[in-house]
Write a structure and sequence with these properties.
Layout lengths: L4 E6 L3 E7 L24 E3 L6 E3 L5 H12 L11 H9 L14 H5 L6 H13 L5 H7 L7 H11 L2 H5 L3 H5 L6 H12 L1 H12 L18 E5 L7 H10 L3 E3 L8 E4 L5 H9 L2 E4 H12 L15
Parallel strand pairs: 5-6, 5-7, 7-8
Antiparallel strand pairs: 1-2, 3-4
């Protein structure tokens, strides 16, 4: 504790400790020791084989419940506005939430009487919860918090299983047969689905109307295409643009390669634009990109009247 270290960006994202600068170590420091018990519930912690994180895996740990609800409600998952950290803690501590499914059982009279709530804030939260029932399958899968399943793999799973029921019945053989799904992810999905409490949670969500089927909006006109975004977009954030193409079946990548189909270049585009030009990849400006998305997202007047292939 108190050491100076040298770090670098591993995989372009995660800080990795390269070395300790021992000569700058303050006097009287103590070695850091990982806890063997959860500081919240006191249960023994575990380290997953092959991983580095030490975790509390006690099902009834209040911290686990609160973190799971916050993830479920987060912007990239179910996007429930007004359900911040303090509100989640309050609702769990008041006994109103024992699982994410309980969000859809919250009542106005119970909320309006709580500290930090009034009639307006209670109604706004309930309206946001109600709107979240229309989220599409990739976001619902991501919201479930299946270990090792992030946003991208949630979309891969949605494309291949198309419903919550199909995913919960998947076996390891069918999972590892999918590109980008390895043994670790397959095992995580099967273990999650085999857990009775998780199955009960999914069933409860379905009873509340959360049972999306992937592709129910029709075809996925960008399926098989890969987009890379660079520079600053004026009309949306880069995350929002990536989500748009994913909704249409495309893959959003962070790096340009020969497999890239389109580079969308905003203001102050840099090395990615140079590489795309070198590889002969089609470059779209923001307006051209939005025009493509508008055409692909619009419903044609009659079946077969829109030629989507002209964009490719």
């Amino acid at each position: 504790v108190g050491d100076w270290v040298v770090i670098e960006r591993a995989g372009d994202v995660i800080p990795k400790v390269i070395k300790v600068i021992a000569e700058r170590r303050p006097a009287g420091t103590q070695p850091f020791r990982l806890p063997d018990r959860c500081p919240v519930c006191g249960a023994q912690v575990q380290r997953v084989e092959g991983g580095v994180a030490v975790k509390c895996v006690h099902r009834d740990c209040p911290a686990q419940l609160k973190t799971g609800i916050r993830h479920f409600a987060s912007k990239r998952a179910m996007d429930i506005e007004g359900l911040g950290e303090k509100i989640v803690e309050q609702l769990v501590d008041e006994g109103l939430l024992a699982s994410v499914a309980d969000l859809y059982r919250l009542r106005f009279d119970k909320l309006a009487g709580l500290e930090r709530f009034g009639e307006r804030s209670a109604r706004n939260l309930l309206d946001s919860i109600r709107r979240s029932t229309s989220r599409q399958l990739p976001r619902v899968i991501f919201a479930l918090g299946i270990p090792n399943v992030g946003e991208y793999l949630a979309r891969v799973l949605a494309e291949n299983f198309t419903s919550l029921d199909a995913l919960m019945q998947a076996d390891e053989a069918s999972l590892v047969a999918i590109e980008d799904i390895g043994e670790i992810v397959a095992e995580s999905v099967v273990r999650f689905a085999a857990d009775p409490d998780n199955r009960a949670m999914v069933d409860a969500l379905k009873k509340q109307g959360i049972d999306p089927h992937f592709g129910q909006r029709g075809s996925l006109p960008l399926k098989g295409k890969t987009f890379v975004f660079t520079g600053t977009l004026n009309g949306m954030t880069r995350d929002e643009a990536q989500n748009i193409v994913r909704e249409l079946g495309a893959k959003a990548s962070g790096s340009v390669s020969e497999k890239t189909d389109y580079l969308v270049a905003g203001e102050q585009a840099g090395s990615k634009l140079e590489k795309a030009n070198e590889l002969g990849i089609r470059v779209l400006g923001e307006e051209e990109f939005l025009g493509m998305i508008k055409e692909l997202s619009a419903e044609p007047a009659e079946p077969g009247t829109r030629d989507q292939l002209k964009l490719f």
